[in-house]
Amino acid sequence: MTSGIDPEENAAVLEGAIARAAGEGAEMVFTPEMSGLLDRDRKRAAHSIVPEQDTVPLARAREAAHRAGIWVSLGSLAVETQDGRWANRAFVIDPGGDIAARYDKIHMFDVDLASGESWRESNAYRAGEKVVTVPDTPVGRLGLSICYDIRFPALFQALGQAQCDCIAIPAAFTAPTGKAHWHVLQRARAIEASAFVVAAAQVGEHADGRRTYGHSLVIDPWGEVSLDMGGEEPELGFADIDLARIAEVRAQVPSLANRREIAK
Fold first, then answer.
1. Percent of the chain with pLDDT over 70
2. Of 116, 120, 161, 251, which has the fewest Cβ atoms less than 10 A away?
């Protein structure tokens, strides 16, 4: 996606993608981080960030999932929490349109880049605390993460220990960090968890002035890239996930079974 500052417009894109994916035979759709709103102007964004039950892109995605009879891993939305702070929250929606799981991004993106970009996610967003997995999806047990989480191996160790078959890593990676680290980090997470990774990404020039790296990826448990959608335009991509591949890889390199706790 190339999400903008209007939740209604972003919701329409989500609806269209969900309907098209189902029409072309997909069993599950994955969307990027901040699918409903991407706006670095927090004063302006505040008018659109509301409690979960009032969030238009979530309601429209749930309706679209129900109409199409398809699973949706909604990468994340900005929602207002009970204490008035915001959460960067992922949702998994089942084919009935019900919310099967929620995950709040644990690691906040607080950085100063050499390009001059400065980001302080923790100034507005409350960090999550729980590891979340979703059993019995079309991609097996699905582990949830969001963007900057990818840089923290302990989370993915926990997802590996939970025997996740697939891990969602939706993102809105900056262009400089994406060019340097995106592919190698995604492949590393797939390899160490011996799981598929689906990384739906924001791409291109956005209405708030930022540029994101793109390159939505599907990576198999051996670390091989099955799908790379490039870094230019938003589009809907398709990939086959063969769950039998997971057992093959874990038999060849049983790193999850061989892992030991290290004394500190």
1. 96
2. 116
Is residue 166 among the annotated active site residues? Answer: no
Q: Is 147 a catalytic residue?
A: yes
**Do residues 170 and 147 make contact, with C-beta atoms less than 8 angstroms apart?**
yes
Q: Which element (helix H / strand E) includes 69?
A: none
Give the chain's domains with CATH numbers.
Answer: 7-258 (3.60.110.10)
What letter would DSSP give residue 255? H
User: Catalytic pick from 15, 147, 164, 166?
Assistant: 147
- Which single residue is written with the structure tokens 């084919």? 95
Other CB atoms within a 10 A radius of the CB of residue 161 amount to: 12
For the question of residue 9 being annotated catalytic, the response is no
What pTM was computed for the model?
0.93
pLDDT digits over 202-253, tens only? Answer: 999 999 999 999 999 999 999 999 999 999 999 999 999 999 999 999 999 8
**C-alpha 82 chain-centroid distance:** 23
220: three-class secondary structure by DSSP: coil
